[in-house]
Amino acid sequence: MAIIATVGGMLFGFDISSMSAIVITDQYIDYFNNPSGVTQGAIGSALAAGSVVGSLMAGPISDKYGRRDSIMFACLWWLAGTAVQVATNGVGSLIAGRVLNGICVGITSSQVPVYLAEIAPRDTRGRIIVIQQLAIEWGILIMYFIGYGCSKIEGTASFRTAWGTQFIPCVLLMLGLPFLPRSPRWLAKVGREEEAIQTLANIQAGGNKDDPLVVAEWEEIFTVLNAERESIRGWKKFFVNGMWKRTLAGMSVQAWQQLSGANVIVYYIGYVFLMADLQGDVNLVSSGIQYALFIIFTSIMFFFIDRTGRRTLLVLGSIGMAVCHFVVGGLLGTYSIDVPEGVGGNHNVVIKVTGSPAHGVIAFSYLLIIVYALTLAPVAWVYAAEVWSLGTRATGMSLAAVANWLFNFALGLFTPPAFLNIKYKVFIIFGVLCICAAIQAWLTYPETCGKTIEEVETLFAKGAPPAWKTKKGGSRLEAEIQAVLNRKDNVEDVHTDVHPELQKTATREVAEEKV
């Protein structure tokens, strides 16, 4: 189920590297008149602009029609946007196509993690959601080398062919979605309780609705849902009774994922390697190695994310990335020379280093992506999907995605002009921001690892311990499963020890107590 659903993440990855592999090719530079500065920033950030719109749409659509159907709706925008990109006749239509694709990405990037969080068992939830990040990275890698191969095609067929392949994952996703079950928590939310219980049983216990785990988890969902139905409605509910803490956590962790500066490397690694004097095919292949490292190290984290605390990864990852940024900025600031005409004729890159400093820039750019792949890249999506309550999860995750895409848009627009105007200082700024991310994660992000998504509510409730005193695990679900087993034992005792005329009454009383 997760593999099919996360093809939505692969669309995001395809769109990222549909530009990063193309922007330094002669065909792209010639046809679009060597776009640089704000123009290239607008092209690069158009996806994020559309994603902000898509994220705002996603919550209401997901709450009304379901997580699965909202993803299907997103695919229609992708088909339209890809068609516009393939038929582009200039910068304006290219930006328009990327905005349409962005609406799709905004919906899928917010609702796929919601869907995964709501179907996954608590002890594998982190790994299940990490599949979303892996799908993004596979999309980046596959599309990057498609773009690299298409760079050998003459004329505009080069980038048109590359962008046309974006239809493929979208069609595969649309074919697979009807075979996925609806989220049991969404079914419960809209009153389809029998279907919700059966779906939960299919996912957790091979269809056995009487399994203690299914009974215990359904009781928890039912209790929380009833409490939420009596709570405040509308946007106000995101900022009262401790919900502001969740809103802060969910939105800020997504913002820091962007402000860490890693996606600047992902989008514009070709420019960074031009600063290290790598040109032509050497630049393209070296950039591709980064995407392979991204996948390898996120795959490693797949096996450990549910054993390692979310807080630990967020704090240590931010510090590690800060060190990498400071080293790259320091090397460029100390050893670079100005190239006013642009390195390799590219007007976006006006400084370069050679020799050992260049090797250092390349090495620490790779190391930055490795640290990001092990920490903020997967954990930010996992944590943002975990912190919301059932009644606020779809819209709350939309808010988190809005924060992600707003900063993605701002940084996409900012980076090319920044490379021209403040040069190496870009990396110093991101290093400082990473330190700020580590401080906030330490102070305000309670540990959610090993807990059911209903239990996470208590971590943000009034009187909860400070974030730095929370620990992974400690779920109460085991105790609730044991309580279900004890109730079953009580029913069996009634049937063996009580006069037959009293069995029905006693069994009913136990059932009423259970409800």
From TrEMBL:
Subcellular location: Membrane
Domain Major facilitator superfamily (MFS) profile: 1-449
Residues annotated as transmembrane: 41-59, 71-88, 128-149, 255-276, 288-305, 312-337, 357-384, 396-414, 426-445
Entry-linked Gene3D superfamilies: MFS general substrate transporter like domains
InterPro entries assigned: MFS_dom (IPR020846), MFS_sugar_transport-like (IPR005828), MFS_Sugar_Transporters (IPR050360), MFS_trans_sf (IPR036259), Sugar/inositol_transpt (IPR003663), Sugar_transporter_CS (IPR005829)
One GO CC term, this protein: membrane
Protein topology in the membrane: Multi-pass membrane protein
Source superkingdom: Eukaryota
GO MF annotations, alphabetized: carbohydrate:proton symporter activity
Pfam families: Sugar_tr
Database matches in SUPFAM superfamilies: MFS general substrate transporter (SSF103473)
Keyword entries, A-Z: Glycoprotein, Membrane, Transmembrane, Transmembrane helix, Transport
Homology family: Belongs to the major facilitator superfamily. Sugar transporter (TC 2.A.1.1) family.
PANTHER family, per the entry: MAJOR FACILITATOR SUPERFAMILY (MFS) PROFILE DOMAIN-CONTAINING PROTEIN, PLASTIDIC GLUCOSE TRANSPORTER 4
Protein name, UniProt field: Major facilitator superfamily (MFS) profile domain-containing protein
Organism, scientific name: Daldinia eschscholtzii
Upper lineage: Eukaryota, Fungi, Dikarya, Ascomycota, Pezizomycotina
